Structure formats: structure tokens, C-alpha cells
Amino acid sequence: MKRALITGVNGQDGSYLAELLLEKGYKVYGLMRRKSKVDYGNVEHLKNEIEFIYGDMTDPISLINAMRVSQADEVYNLAAQSFVGTSWEQPIATAQIDALGVTNILEAIRTVKPKAKFYQASTSEMFGLVQEIPQKETTPFYPRSPYGVAKLYGHWITKNYRESYNMFACSGILFNHESERRGKEFVTRKITDAVARIKLGVQDRLELGNMEAKRDWGHAEDYVKAMWLMLQQDNPDDYVVASGETHKVREFVELAFKHVGIEIEWIGEGVDEKGIDKKTGKVVVSVNPKFFRPAEVDILLGDPSKAKEKLGWKREISFEELVKRMVEADLRRVKEEVNFNEYMKETASTIE
């Protein structure tokens, strides 16, 4: 039985990866930060199948302990301060986790089990001010956020350990991958959650920043398969994992609303632009400058040719299907929330 250690196991990617590895017969260990209240997050349904180890990416001793306990054959480093917007507000914390944290886990592997295979979650945000379109493994990097800069350090230190110590260390340069398990602070979940609430009458409007930004979106369930495939190769290497398509934030908004029967008509320009429900004339989308980034990444479009050719990986869930799944999941969640609130009101009035 292979053993795997996943950092960030209770996040979106960690949960899908844990499911995949358990299906393949792995013994799965998950690194989890100690809190006053245990929070299994997206792996609540797997809490009896995963062995959890308390640790922190900024604490090298805890990572060495995690390696000693797990004796992992494969280590997947998915832990990160992963919200780009927060990286401007917390640049030092972002660097400590997303940059130095990678060095900490690599040193833990080198100390305890240097033959273990290592996967580093790199990001398309490292391309930032893109130097060519589409972006591939050889495209020069130009990060435009503290998050992108920190991730670039993690990417290069992984390559450095591979070349310096002959470690099996890979980086997956993953473009935007979303799912029903994505946090609400990310624009995709913010959109689908708001669409569900507007449709069910519990929210009036969705506020966004730059709707002209273009992203290459895929589903996380597809992308974790590429992570696993990288560590099954004979030799370590780095790979771009992407859909090969790019869509504006505006397109995501239109498709999400369309799925609940609302057609959006746009009026105005720039910060004055608004999205109107064509049927009712009601404003349901508006621009709020506070959501603009200090330095914007205008377009991301990945070339996954190498991953397709060498790993045999391919995307199975389309952009349209991704949006559909997210909207439907949020509709179910919001309906349950509304029903619960109505039940509590009825209960309270009965008691009175």
C-alpha cells in the first residue's frame, strides 16, 4: 500500500486528491493546522478514512514529524495562502507559507525520506503580465501579486532541490481550477453563490471588479488527476495543466445567470457598467472599484500540450459544465439555508 501525505488536505484540491488516492488504495495522511475547533472543511466526509497529522508550513519541526509519522512515498504540497487579493493585505504571511513553506517541506522530506516523490502546487499567476499567449512551461514568468511572487519562489526552490539533491520533485503549473467546493472569496464561487441568492430572492445584486479579465478555467476534479500522474512518471518534470480556453469574467457571469433563466443585458461602461435582468429591468450586477487589484493580470491562457502528450492527461469537464455544477450546488445550499431560516422563524413564533 502506497502512502501519501497531503498538505492543505481540507481545501478544494486536497479533498478531490484525497478521494482519488483513496480510490487507488493509498493510505492517506493529511496535514492539518491545529485550531480551537477542529475544522475538516471539504474532507468532512472522509474524516474516518484519512489519518490527520497536526502541523504548519511555517513550522519545520512539525513537518519533519509529519514525514516521520506518515513515511510518505508521495508528498503533495497543496497548502497555501491561496487568495490573490489577500496577498496584498498579508504579503509577509503569504511569503512565509507559499514560499518558505515549500523549503520547509522539502527539507523535511530530505531529512526523513529523500526518496519520496514531491509535488508542488505552482500557479498560472506566476505568468502575471504574460510574455506570450498561450503560456507554456518555457514562457518567462512575470508575477503581478505577492501571491504570484511567493509561488514563483516555491516553483524555483522545487526545481533547485531536484537538481541539487536528485530528488523526485515536480511542479504543476495549474491554471484556474474551480469547483462546487471553492471558497466564497474566489470570484467564481462569489458569482455562483450570488446568482443562486438572487434567483431565490435573498440577495439583490452582485458586485464585481474587473469583468474584462480573462482566465483559463477548468474543474479541480480533472486537475488533481494530473498531479497524481506527474508522480507516476519515471523522471520528475514540470507541467502546465490548463483547459486551453480563455473566458472573460463577464462570460462566467452571463452563463451562471443563464443557467437560472436570467438573461443579462449590459449598459454603461467602466465603473458605471451594470448588468440588467432583461426580463424585469432590475440591476443585478454592478462594478465596485474596491475589488480591482493593485496590479491586474489581464489574460491567462495555458497550453497543456506537454501534459497531454507525456502524462496522457486530458480535461473531461467543460467550462459550461463547470459553471452548471457550481450554480446547481449553490442553489441547493441556499435553498437549504432559506428553509432552515424559515423553520427557525416558525419555531420562534410558536414558542412566543
TrEMBL record:
EC number: 4.2.1.47
Stretches assigned to the NAD(P)-binding domain: 5-326
SUPFAM superfamilies assigned to the protein according to its UniProt record, in alphabetical order: NAD(P)-binding Rossmann-fold domains
Catalytic reactions of this protein: GDP-alpha-D-mannose = GDP-4-dehydro-alpha-D-rhamnose + H2O
Superkingdom of origin: Bacteria
Sequence similarity: Belongs to the NAD(P)-dependent epimerase/dehydratase family. GDP-mannose 4,6-dehydratase subfamily.
Protein role: Catalyzes the conversion of GDP-D-mannose to GDP-4-dehydro-6-deoxy-D-mannose.
Name the UniProt record assigns to this protein: GDP-mannose 4,6-dehydratase
Organism: Thermohalobacter berrensis
Gene name for this UniProt entry: gmd
